[in-house]
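Hi Y.,

Following your request, here is the sequence exactly as I used it, all 310 residues.
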Amino acid sequence: MPRAVRYDRYGAVDVLYVADVARPAPAADEVVVEVVAAGLNPGEIGVREGLAHAIWPATFPSGQGSDLAGEVVAVGSAVSTPTIGAQVIGFTNRRAAQADYVAVPADQVTPKPAAVGWDVAGSLFVAGTTAYAAVRAVGAEPGETVAVSAAAGGVGSLAVQLLRRQGVRVLAVAGEANHEWLASLGAMPIGYGEGIKGVEEQLRAAAPEGVDAFIDTYGSGYVELAMRLGVAPVRINTIIDFPAAKKFGTKSDGNMAAARADVLAELAALITEGAISVAVSATYPVEQVREAYAELARPHSRGKIVLRMR
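Below is the corresponding structure, written out as tokens. Let me know if you'd prefer a different format.
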């Protein structure tokens, strides 16, 4: 039978299991995708642990995942494109991507270019659209200096590359193990030093003329740091520290600000051109979903972690 990741209560990784489920049938405006790869995202940990219950409550048994890539195996009566057999990149808003088969609205998938591998395609949606929205939010211009926290992560590393494409000088805050890689992307690595105070000192030293904009993908004080650096609130975007965004009047554009198939198509085209790349640090078979999320939870991870359904 088809399989899907499930959990029946909030908790740590041990609540996750793989269940046999019925194969979905498409509604009139939907397609059914046989999933090849499904990316993991840090926000899913908070949802599973119940930390986001006030915003995104779970109903049990709950599935997991938004990112997916695979092959269309069924289409609804009102769908003309894509057709059966099409390879697609897409997303679901139903916490259902980590499954052998997923039914999604047809307008939530876009063709997968042949040059984009399955693991990259299957992990593109959340990180890619979040980075896209964050970069757009801060309005960086060529020659400006923009700092990015947690720059080696899935969102951060894509934000770095999108900023560099715009001719922006990027100060990339990350652990030392990722400095050489970030430098290869054209960024100036900034270490953590002695906590956030050490980061501030290094940013001031690297940009004595000032930082023009700040993208925070980590939280834990980076919005406040950006304010201390003199960055205008309208040029600060956090994808995680919503209380700080409210307190200081900064932006908080994330995935939902760019959650569209046309944005996925644009990002996939940039990957095909070699203009940006998605770092996949590890892949796991779906049966090892617990191990995959345990690795995702470790600090200073690089790029994306992907579940392989087949």
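The longest strand covers residues 30-39.

Thanks again,
Q.
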